[in-house]
């Protein structure tokens, strides 16, 4: 059983990637993939999601202060316990009916629910906590979790410092679709999308919801003295998609809404300018794609940024006008053989394109 929260999210993508890998290895397996928050609190899901989006858009500093804050964790512990208790009673029917051998959670909320279920009903079902960001927060920590799957050695060390036994932790990476590990015929791709092989391709993403100052960024890139080709993925942001398609640009611009072609688009890109969501980051690393990070959400994305920068696989810009220097820096490193080798060695060290297969193998043999 795979539990996540929020449709069209990184947590959901991770769950689907693991499901695909399990069924590839063991077609006879029964796999349930469930939005746990919608299942236990169907009426609250939309309200909570909208509240979260409003906070990160309008008052992000509030989220920054709340995220993995020990005082906040202590003060809300009774509320958390009550929610887990209530949710566990509703989750019990689902788990009892399906009777899984293994439950894998790609978000901390369902992980806490299943941990509570194991405590309350003395269940011995194997529980995997599958982290989709580089920095773990306190709500992941439960004695009942049998195995933690983490993106990097730094993540493992953070969990150990939070009291998790290191024997429980596997550094397999963030689960992504296996297609990101496949090589693509660039010449064929460029021809299919009508792009020039000899002109750098800059990919721009704002996460699944197309957030960030993408309009201003495109204005800067359009005025760059270097000839570029731009691929912009707007996610669920139809307003941004329509705005781009109504404008005339000097540079060649391809625009997409939420798409399943990300692996092909990344295969054509020379670099990407993106928010550092865990899944996007893992996909970029799998594709050996240099990153320029813009507008990270306080909390999980800010911590992802710190780890990516400390591993020298990404640059960060504070505003769209800073893109020109970052663009030159990365493109020059790619051209310079010595710098390029070091840069891509760093990416290779952090990249785990086969993560879903490793997780699936472990889930089939817990």
Describe this structure as you would to a colleague:
With 366 residues, the chain is an alpha/beta fold. The protein folds into 2 domains: 2-176 and 354-364, Rossmann fold, CATH 3.40.50; 179-350, Glycogen Phosphorylase B (Rossmann fold). Helices cover 50% and strands 13% of the residues. It is built from 17 helices and 12 strands. The chain has helices at residues 10-25, 36-40, 44-58, 60-66, 70-75, 77-98, 108-121, 153-161, 186-193, 214-222, 238-246, 262-268, 278-286, 300-310, 323-335, 337-350, 355-364; strands at 2-4, 33-35, 102-105, 126-130, 147-149, 169-170, 201-205, 229-233, 252-256, 271-274, 291-294, 314-317. Strands 2-1-3-4-5-6 form a 6-stranded parallel sheet, sandwiched between helices. A 6-stranded parallel sheet has the order 9-8-7-10-11-12, with helices on both faces. Helix 1 packs across helix 17 (355-364), helix 3 (44-58) packs across helix 4 (60-66) and helix 6 packs across helix 7. It is globular and about 65 Å long. The mean pLDDT is 89.
């Amino acid at each position: 059983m795979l539990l996540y929260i929020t449709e069209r999210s990184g947590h959901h993508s991770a769950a689907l990637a693991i499901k695909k890998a399990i069924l590839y290895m063991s077609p006879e397996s029964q796999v349930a993939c469930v939005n746990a928050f919608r299942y236990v609190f169907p009426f609250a899901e939309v309200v909570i999601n909208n509240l979260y989006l409003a906070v990160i858009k309008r008052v992000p500093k509030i989220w920054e202060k709340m995220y993995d804050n020990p005082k906040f964790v202590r003060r809300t512990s009774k509320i958390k316990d009550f929610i887990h208790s209530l949710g566990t009673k509703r989750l019990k029917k689902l788990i009892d009916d399906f009777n899984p051998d293994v439950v894998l959670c790609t978000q901390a909320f369902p992980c806490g629910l299943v941990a509570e279920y194991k405590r309350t009903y003395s269940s011995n079902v194997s529980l995997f906590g599958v982290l989709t960001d580089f920095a773990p927060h306190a709500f992941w920590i439960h004695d009942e979790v049998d195995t933690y799957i983490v993106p990097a050695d730094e993540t493992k060390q953070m969990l150990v410092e939070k009291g998790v036994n290191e024997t429980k932790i596997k550094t397999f990476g963030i689960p992504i679709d296996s297609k990101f590990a496949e090589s693509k015929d660039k010449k064929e791709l460029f021809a299919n999308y009508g792009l020039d092989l000899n002109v750098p391709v800059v990919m721009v993403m704002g996460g699944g919801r197309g957030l960030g100052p993408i309009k201003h960024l495109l204005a800067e890139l359009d005025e760059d003295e270097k000839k570029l080709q731009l691929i912009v993925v707007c996610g669920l942001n139809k307003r941004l998609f329509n705005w781009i398609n109504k404008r005339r640009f000097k540079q060649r611009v391809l625009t997409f809404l939420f798409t399943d072609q990300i692996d092909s688009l990344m295969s054509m890109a020379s670099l990407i300018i993106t928010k550092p969501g865990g899944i996007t980051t893992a996909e970029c690393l799998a594709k050996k794609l240099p990153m320029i990070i813009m507008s990270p959400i306080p909390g999980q994305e800010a911590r992802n940024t710190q780890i990516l920068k400390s591993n020298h696989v990404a640059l960060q810009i504070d505003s769209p006008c800073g893109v020109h220097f970052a663009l030159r820096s990365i493109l020059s490193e790619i051209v310079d053989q010595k710098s390029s080798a070091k840069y891509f060695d760093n990416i290779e060290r952090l990249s785990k394109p086969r993560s879903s297969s490793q997780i699936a193998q472990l889930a089939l043999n817990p």
